[in-house]
Write a structure and sequence with these properties.
A: Uridine Diphospho-n-acetylenolpyruvylglucosamine Reductase, domain 3; Alpha-Beta Plaits; 4 domains; 7-stranded antiparallel β-sheet; 5-stranded antiparallel β-sheet; globular; B: alpha+beta; Uridine Diphospho-n-acetylenolpyruvylglucosamine Reductase, domain 3
């Protein structure tokens, strides 16, 4: 089938205005939130309903065409990018909040619902949706499910996986499956848990049921500043060991502080501090939160904080948080290009790892700014650079690799919330051996035997050890069956121009 | 060479105990994850059928098999990191021993699974049996940072890690937790811990089930946030009437404020227990489920808890019931028949409520299955995953029944 006839077939399903074929239109989907990867999709299709998603997926299955599900495109791993031989399936039109059930504290949404919109809709019931990625004003719940997104408040309340109760999923062949149960108890093995964070490789979630939490009645926001990065890192461990779990515990270093203070998001962070910690305590009881905040402030002072500021009112709290949430945007001012990293280390390793990152930055002559979820040990060292300078990008890549190696050596991992996508593929063999990678690939093929959904992401195929679960004989048989099915379909419908992948 | 001789040649003389099991199945106790992998790789080659055992106090050790693989010698705790609030433990460690080692380092695993105190960590993870603390701290999977398991063909698969957040690759930990051993033998577990609570208070109220259900609603409406909030049947609570037990755990300020809120919401009707009384209450309730021949759990919506207990009462009785009305989870224990279990599962499936058979004698497990009556499209996925991780069908696990 030619690109034109594929587009025509897609247009019949979703309407011509929801199929993008012109290059200037497709180029707008060539990147996600990470500017370092660029892939222009062959066709972009925007279905408007679950039934349209099913019809599109079945068409693509019949044609053997790979496809990539995409939400708002705010991801930071190159995960929602499609090549020229693939269809980008954009889910932003599936944006209905289908139900909010205050009594059972849950909501049912379509995947294109923007994260912050759900909390806004739940607010009149005194409820909120807890996972709060920095991109929450734009990112979608479907994208959050695919990436198992986190956010500052995940320290106390958990990441996306902790909040998804059940899923309706369209598999690669267009079959619909219902995973989990309305109350959140797994129905059989925990397939919801397996699906969340699978980066679109297992199918498309078309209906998502999530848990809502009560809006906390009491909140205290603290800003502690430190004269050394190491001291701030040590204070993080002291807070965690206290037994009081803050809702959020974020750290910004001096480079990041200055970037924020130079921007329109200036929050009043002390520019001379080597690092600041932004902490939030919340709960249902004013007196308990106030007492816990006092305890934490004491711990921070005892562990080297020069000062501890408590936000006086909601306005000041919002300002302190805006500086943190817009820090990535503010760093865009530092230089033309930015590599956003995402690694996790044991919390007690933070002081050593932060110092090691500083040494790597110095050795490569690069500017690294740290803004991250310190309470989880989830680092975001960001490298600012100008990609037009010859050789600089290669240095950035080398430095990134060294930073990752340091994190892994400290017992950490290569991504805490951004996902593998394309960006981290090269690091996967550093973390997992051939058997673990092969197991992942074999699981993926249970959901998507042809590996057609979001191909080339998450698992570096070359590094997989041979896995008996990938049965060559079975695969051959299945391909033959599909061939027969396609041939029969062509006989039944001579007008349809069914051709194998790559013939477009 | 006989099976026993072959295993002895592989793992050493002391790894096999021929006369240990009631049914005469040789029991093999590998001393390391690698030894488990070696054994299962050989089982795959030889076509041996393997049942997996922990301490033998939860799931009956009665599945028909060529050998019983016990994790008992995998009982080390390689790491407890109080500053990181994480620990790494082998699967065969008893929960009581682990709890003590964690407490010595000021840390706490916020899980209170049903069963005897010496039940192994691997058993709790493999069957995902959380107890009343699931109300405040979540199900078993929320306490796991990663696991290492050995597949049916002897591959050692590492999943997750030992840090607090991790989205590198697919989350196979979720598959292993609650998979009832169908996808592999869990050998090593990385745990998310909490600091030992500075204050821990349990309060109880006795009354009719109807009365206590209303109290439970009042508690939810007042946004009281307990660590546990459990409705127990009289037999389970060893009282004359039903009991609602509420537990708060955390900082002294938190526990004090929540207790005050509970009293305000319920007219001061609850009685606070002493620490030893509270310990005895929760421990007895957990152990009681190990003394009934059959245990299952159902998971509904919070506002359906009362109706679900009615349904259980009608179909299988309600003598041994423990329910978390705040999250819709119910555990049932007692004696019943295969037919009743099947009928109940079908009825519940019609209400979109899953029934997971946690423990029963092998004939009942084999007939009913731990899981069943799946929702649309799930069966083929589960079958595909089983083929992936146990291609030779080495593990004797009653994943689904025979209906």
């Amino acid at each position: 089938m030619t690109g034109g006839s594929l587009a025509a077939a897609l247009s019949e399903i979703v309407g011509a205005r929801h199929v993008r074929t012109a290059l200037p239109e497709r180029v707008t989907y060539a990147r996600d939130g990470l500017p370092t990867h660029r892939h222009v999709p062959g066709v972009v299709v925007l279905p408007g309903s679950r039934d349209e998603v099913v019809a599109v997926v079945r068409l693509l299955a019949a044609l053997g065409v790979p496809f990539v599900p995409r939400g708002a495109g705010t991801g930071l791993s190159g995960g929602a990018l499609a090549d020229d031989d693939a269809v980008l399936l954009v889910l932003t039109r599936l944006n209905r909040i289908l139900a909010i059930d205050p009594k059972n504290r849950l909501a049912v949404v379509e995947p294109g619902v923007v994260n912050v919109r759900l909390s806004a809709a739940a607010a009149p019931h005194g409820l909120l949706y807890s996972p709060d990625p920095s991109s929450q004003t734009a990112c979608t719940i479907g994208g959050n499910v695919a990436e198992n997104s986190g956010g500052p408040h995940c320290l106390k309340y958990g990441v996306t996986a902790n909040h998804v109760l059940s899923l309706e999923v369209v598999l690669a062949d267009g079959r619909i499956v219902q995973l989990g149960s309305p109350g959140g108890e797994p129905w059989g093995p925990d397939l919801v848990g397996l699906f969340v964070g699978s980066e679109g490789n297992f199918g498309i979630a078309t209906r998502i049921s999530v848990r809502l939490l009560p809006v906390p009645r009491a909140i205290r926001t603290l800003l502690a500043d430190f004269s050394a990065l190491r001291t701030a890192g040590e204070a993080v461990s002291a807070v965690i060991a206290s037994g009081i779990v803050p809702a959020a515990l974020e750290m910004m270093d001096q480079s990041c502080i200055n970037a924020v203070e130079d921007s329109v998001y200036a929050a009043g962070y002390p520019r001379d501090a080597a690092a600041v910690l932004l902490l939030e305590l919340d709960g249902g009881r004013e007196e308990a939160v106030a007492a816990d905040a006092e305890t934490i402030a004491g711990i921070l002072r005892a562990h080297g904080a020069r000062s501890v500021l408590s936000a006086a009112d909601a306005k000041q709290r919002e300002r302190l948080w805006q500086g943190r949430k817009k820090a990535f945007g503010a760093m865009g001012r530092l230089s033309r290009d930015l590599v956003v990293q995402d690694a996790v280390v044991p919390r007690s390793a933070l002081p050593d790892v932060l110092e090691a990152i500083g040494r790597i930055a110095a050795a490569y002559g690069l500017t690294v700014s740290n803004v991250f979820h310190a309470g989880d040990g989830n680092l975001h060292p960001n490298i600012s650079f100008d990609g037009r300078v010859p050789g600089l990008k290669a240095r950035v890549d080398q430095a990134s690799g060294e930073i990752m190696a340091v994190c892994i050596a400290a017992g950490g991992t290569i991504t805490g919330e951004h996902g593998i996508g394309l960006d981290k593929l090269r690091y996967m063999p550093l973390l997992f051996d051939g058997d673990a990678l092969a197991a992942m690939r074999a699981v993926r093929r249970v959901f998507d035997p042809d590996e057609r959904v979001n191909p080339g992401k998450v698992v570096p195929v070359h590094a997989c050890r041979e896995w008996s679960g990938l049965r060559i004989a079975d695969r051959g048989l299945r391909i033959e069956e599909r061939g027969r099915s396609l041939a029969q379909s062509a006989i039944d419908n001579p007008q349809s121009a069914i051709a194998p992948r790559g013939a477009r | 060479m006989s099976l026993v001789d072959r295993v002895r040649a592989l793992l050493g003389e002391d790894a096999v105990d021929v006369a240990a099991t009631r049914d005469g199945v040789p029991r093999v106790a590998p001393g390391s994850p690698d030894a488990v992998a070696l054994l299962l790789g050989t089982a795959r080659e030889e076509g041996w059928r393997v049942r997996v055992e922990g301490a033998g106090t939860w799931l009956p050790a009665d599945a028909p098999a060529d050998l019983a693989l016990t994790t008992r010698r995998l009982d080390k705790v390689p790491a407890i990191e109080p500053q990181d609030l994480s620990a790494t433990a082998e699967a065969g460690i008893g929960c009581d021993l682990l709890r003590q080692q964690l407490a010595d380092r000021g840390t706490w695993l916020a899980l209170d699974p049903p069963g005897l105190a010496g039940r192994t960590l691997g058993s709790v993870v493999a069957t995902a049996t959380a107890g009343p603390l699931r109300q405040g701290f979540g199900p078993v999977r929320d306490h796991l940072l990663g696991v290492t398991f050995v597949t049916g063909d002897g591959r050692l698969v590492q999943s997750g890690g030992r840090v607090m957040k991790n989205v590198a690759g697919y989350d196979l930990t979720r598959l292993a937790a609650g998979g009832f051993g169908a996808f592999g033998v869990i050998v090593l577990v990385h745990l998310r811990l909490r600091a030992l609570p500075r204050a821990d208070q349990t309060l109880v109220l006795e009354g009719s089930r109807e009365d206590l259900a209303q109290v439970a609603e009042d508690i939810a409406a007042a946004a009281v946030q307990p660590a546990a909030h459990e409705l127990m049947s009289p037999a389970l609570a060893r009282r004359e009437r039903w009991m609602l037990a509420v537990r708060f755990a955390g900082s002294a300020a938190l526990v004090s404020a929540e207790e005050a809120a509970l009293r305000a919401a319920t007219g001061g009707r609850f009685t606070a227990l002493r620490a030893d009384e509270a310990h005895a209450l929760w421990m007895r309730a957990a152990e009681s489920f190990a003394t009934r021949p059959v245990t299952f759990r159902v998971g509904g919506l919070p506002d359906s808890s009362d109706e679900l207990i009615d349904l259980l009462q009608h179909q299988v009785g309600d003598e041994w019931v423990s329910a978390s009305p705040g999250i819709g989870a119910i555990r049932w224990g007692g004696e019943t028949t295969v037919d009743r279990l099947r009928r109940l599962r079908r009825t519940l499936a019609g209400l979109e409520v899953p029934l997971t058979l946690e423990r029963a004698p092998w004939p009942a497990r084999a007939a009913v299955g731990h899981f069943g009556a799946y929702r649309e499209g799930v069966g083929p996925l589960v079958a595909g995953l089983r083929r992936t991780f146990d291609p030779g069908e080495a593990f004797v696990v009653a994943v689904e029944g025979t209906e």
